[in-house]
Amino acid sequence: LLIFFVIVQTTAIAGSIILGILADSIGQKKTIIITLVMWLITVLLAYLVQDKSSFYIVGLIAGAAMGSSQSTSRSLMSKLTPPEKKTEFFGFYSFFGKSSAVLGPLVFGLVSFLSGDQRLAIISISFFFLIGLLILLKVKDPKTTSA
């Protein structure tokens, strides 16, 4: 478990740097879309893995996605928010972030309890990434819109 933790944290650092450079090049929205696809792949692989080495590969992808998700989403939020409403909008951002930290594990636990299958529970989490991706696709990209 310690090795897995080190893998995730190390790739989170690398992911935030590499995907941060990518965000500067292609924009935050496109980078978050890439990150959400990475999360969907991570969840699918976590569902499918059968051995320890495959589990470590899942950790590599999860770490890279995690490192980028937080920093890039804050950057996009900052660009989308009117200056006079930054406090209010980031309050909502924080509220929904904290809510998801409760809702995700709650859904995982509920699906695991009801089905008796943790693999099914992990795949249920993909629903949240998919909904986030669909919502994000409707958001105007600040890189392509004029100020």
Core attributes:
85% helix, single chain, Growth Hormone, Chain: A, 6 helices, 147 residues
Q: Regions with pLDDT < 50 over 5+ consecutive residues?
A: none
Q: From the alpha carbons, calculate the radius of gyration and give it in angstroms.
A: 16 Å
Number of spatially distinct domains: 1
Number of strands: 0
Here the CATH topology equals Growth Hormone, Chain: A
Quaternary structure state of the chains depicted: single chain
CATH superfamily: MFS general substrate transporter like domains
The assigned CATH architecture is Up-down Bundle
* H/E element order: HHHHHH
Measured as a percent range, the helix fraction is over 70%
How does this structure look, described?
With 147 residues, the chain is mostly helical. It has one domain (2-138): MFS general substrate transporter like domains (Growth Hormone, Chain: A). The protein is 85% helix and 0% strand. Helix 2 (28-48) runs antiparallel to helix 3 and helix 4 packs antiparallel against helix 5. It is globular and about 50 Å long.
Question: What is the fold's blueprint, element by element?
Answer:
Blueprint: H1 2-26, H2 28-48, H3 52-80, H4 86-115, H5 118-124, H6 126-138
Helix pairs in contact: 1-2, 1-3, 2-3, 2-5, 2-6, 4-5
